[in-house]
Predict the 3D structure of the following.
Amino acid sequence: MDKFDSKNRRILVIDDNEAIHEDFRSILSGKEEDTSALNQAKAAIFGGDDDDKDPGIEMETFEIESAFQGQEGLEKVRESIRDNRPYAMAFVDIRMPPGWDGIETIHRIWQEYPELQVVICTAHSDYSWQETVRKLGQTERLLILKKPFDNIEVRQIACALTEKWYLLNDLGRLVEQRTEQIMSTRDVAVFALANLAESRDPETGAHLERIRSYCQILAEELRENSEYSDQITDEFIEDLYRSSPLHDIGKVGIPDLILLKPGSLTESEFKIMEQHTNIGGDALKKAGRLASGGFLDMGCEIARSHHERFDGSGYPDKLAGLDIPLAARIAALADVYDALTSVRVYKSAFRPEVAKLMIEEERGKHFDPAVVDAFLNRYEDFIKVRKLHDNPETSLINAIADGSSD
């Protein structure tokens, strides 16, 4: 059971006196006969007849478990964590001879489970608050409850601390969910922006989807079987997947007369077409500064440098070899393979096996040899990606998994 499926009302009582355990069960059971005093208190504070029953209000019911020594309490805490059913709080007696006292018990439990909210129960002045803080540290997780107990006070403490535990622990989950939502929204916006540029060329189809799938396949292979394995982290692959669709974002600045020309470009037209790398790179560089970098920095590298060639004959900066950013070297091969195997206004599609031979021939010239080797090792996965987008009802994961089981 996930600890966030419902409010956690699990309480551990650690006390060497059996009667104390019975007292806590009676106070926190939630039975009607045990809550008359609390109802009277509510009536005194908020007004009304305490005999009036409000059907909209239900008394909290707590799940009480018992331990009679500190060592047993620690074992129960460990077991609750293993079972993914942690306690929200504990009532701990200060004196429990012959074993650990309450302070030692709390210290040991907090070493393994610091989230536990704790109430020290005592009828004595064994420790001053200063001594308690000195032994356990300054903390907001600790309260002191004097014996004999006041029933209403015990129930109020239980309600408050279990709610506090839930809010503190649930906050992390809520932040994580919200972060995922923000990232998902951001990814959709980025992809829509990239698609806006590609939409000016109706023959590109699912080009962006294929590009990022190809890039992910290449990066995963390079991480496993290349000298770049130390550079390719999970974050690198995630950023590459998000940013690679932005490779041609700069085409929004190229006139349709050139972008959609069905024939070959003249030299002057090609010079204008080349500017899409500068336009896209500069735009993403500015966006990256506003958004504190991240995947947009990689997007800038890809947009600017995916037309560089490994031998230094590409554009716009004539970079060569390892001076070309790794992400751009990966995107370059993915982009060319997809262009070769797709219909364009100026050409028909090449068969995949022909495109494969053409890329092999460019090993060390247009493409990084390591990236070409990764492509050859995962060529069948490239074929599956193409089939996936030819038949959108097929799952990419299932397509690749089916191939691996052949």
